[in-house]
Amino acid sequence: MIRINRIAAIGLPIAALGLVVAACQPQVLPHPSDALTPAEVEELFVGKTAIGTVQGRRAATYFAPDGTARLKVIGHNGTIVEFDGTHYFNEQGASCVNFPTLPIYGKDRCNHIVPLDDGRYQQSYDEGITERILEGNRLDELK
User: Fold this and answer.
1) What residue ranges define each of the domains in the chain, with the CATH number in brackets?
2) Strands, DSSP E only, in the chain?
3) Measuring CA to CA, which of 16, 28, 29, 138 is 20 to 30 A from 94?
4) Bridge partners of 58?
5) DSSP H or E run through 3
6) pLDDT digits (tens, 9 = 90+) for 10-58
7) How far apart are CA 55 and CA 36, in angstroms?
8) Three-class SS of residue 100?
9) If we measure between CA atoms, which residue out of 103, 71, 104, 101 comes closest to residue 87?
10) Is the pTM of this model over 0.85?
11) 139 neighbors 62 (Cβ within 8 angstroms)
């Protein structure tokens, strides 16, 4: 896999926030015509924390400039868990994250990021929504 500038997947990304079983084969994603470019995603998310929801869970991901990522998730039962991983772009220009210690999410997860009319961002593959983007590591803002 070619790494084109390590980058945020919101979830940022929250692309990581899907908490679904990752496929064993690399993902081949349709590219929405209105998806952000890798440069736009990088500017929007790197060095920042994306907060939103995926599959009914509140989640936040911090995308560090060095390519590392930290995911914080509030489960359906209210427990809070955190995972360390990485973020980057794949050869298709999709934003990707990998959180190897996440029990059901150990493979790379990639999404194209699409801006919504209301200022939020939609993940193309796992349907996560980024509601807020905050400067720096602000995982403590997840509520």
Assistant:
1) 16-138 (2.40.128.640)
2) 48-54, 57-63, 68-74, 80-89, 95-98, 109-111, 113-115, 121-123, 129-135
3) 138
4) 53, 74
5) none
6) 344 444 334 333 333 344 455 678 899 999 999 999 999 999 998 788 9
7) 22
8) coil
9) 71
10) no
11) yes
